[in-house]
Amino acid sequence: MAASAAAMGGAVSAPAQEAPTKRPAAQRARNVIVFLGDAGGVPTLNAGGILAHDRPQSLFIQSMPYVGLSDTSSLNQWVTDSGAGMTAIMTGRKTNNSMVSVVPDATGATVTPLKTVLEYAEERGLSTGVVTNMKIWDATPAATYAHVASRKNKDEIFRQMLAPRFGNGVDILIGKGRADALASFGARQTTAEQAFTAAGYRFGEDPALIAQAGRAAVLRDADFEPIPAVEATVRQLSRNPKGYFLMVEWDMHTNDPQKGLRHVVEMDDMIRRISAIAGKDTLILFTADHSFGLRLNGGKRATPLAEQFAAAAAKPGATVGANDVIGVEDGHTGEEVIAAASGPGAEQVHGFFPNTRLFQVILAAFGWSPER
């Protein structure tokens, strides 16, 4: 047996020390896309996926690598509305129901505007976009660019849409509410087309405008094909070397369960497609502003769920609420909703947290610090 160096009287050398390694710096996002499923709580996602694919956890959203649970309560209510829910995500502050990117004082008599993620992006020269299948002035899209004490104040929301506090305002707008815009601007002795054109937009009803202009406002009163519209928006916004911020809202309210659950699959398909083309420098975040009173009550695996749901709905006396397969109590609910993410900064989405943390996740992904 060989003798050790110490036994032979030789010097014992110290074990070699490994050179310290630097932890690689977290990659920053060039772009951030927030997909907001309005009323897209966990029960709705679950039922929507099974109804469409007849297997659990079949949505692309459910394969995203980082997932957490977000509290949705507002400043003054346990169950939020979309105004307060989206305000928390866009500004990092909770506010009262019906308020949009403002916070009330102690008495509630006055409100103070809160700076939104979109406004941070505009201030820094990024391109910005808002796409929704709801009205463009509704609470969720409005919370990205407007500041009002009441979400119902559509005339003031339209005014602020074209009078931004930072940058030149949202670069690409797609949504419903064309008739509302015509009425709102008409009351000011102008037309919607004149007002948007004066603000530098190409204005019209055809989403094909997005590919033709860096600033476009597509307002309609009819549905549109979501994937081509969002894909065109991403390609247009990507032309800015500084990056972009995009918010896409899709309505998932299930007071009409067939419609709401169809929208779940539409948004899921949209996220799958955009995740494939957006690039590795893009943080993609899905969440909901609040949940909804839908429950998957029954159904056998051997038969397509859609058939069982339709059969239950056809029974004498069946209602949307009293359905043995998928029942809906029409109203918002207060349980946590999921936040699912991929891309730079996505690892910050985990565990239980307030919805205000998503604002911090987005800013940190960009490498920005929130203002005090």
UniProtKB/TrEMBL annotation:
Key word Cell membrane present in the record? Answer: no
Query: Where along the chain is composition biased (Low complexity)?
Result: 1-16
Tell me which residues this entry annotates as catalytic.
S82
Q: Does the keyword Zinc apply?
A: yes
> What does this protein need as cofactor?
Zn(2+); Mg(2+)
The record, for SUPFAM superfamilies, names: Alkaline phosphatase-like (SSF53649)
Q: Which CDD domains does the record cross-reference, listed alphabetically?
A: ALP (cd16012)
Q: Which Pfam families match?
A: Alk_phosphatase
Kindly state which keywords UniProt assigns to this record, in alphabetical order: Magnesium, Metal-binding, Phosphoprotein, Zinc
Q: Where is this region: Disordered?
A: 1-25
Cofactor binding annotation: Binds 2 Zn(2+) ions.
Entry's SMART domains? alkPPc (SM00098)
Q: Which residues bind Zn(2+)?
A: D38, H253, D289, H290, H332
Please list the residues that bind Mg(2+).
D38, D138, T140, E249
Give the UniProt family note.
Answer: Belongs to the alkaline phosphatase family.
PANTHER family per the record? ALKALINE PHOSPHATASE (PTHR11596)
Name of the protein this chain belongs to: Alkaline phosphatase
UniProt organism field: Sphingomonas aracearum
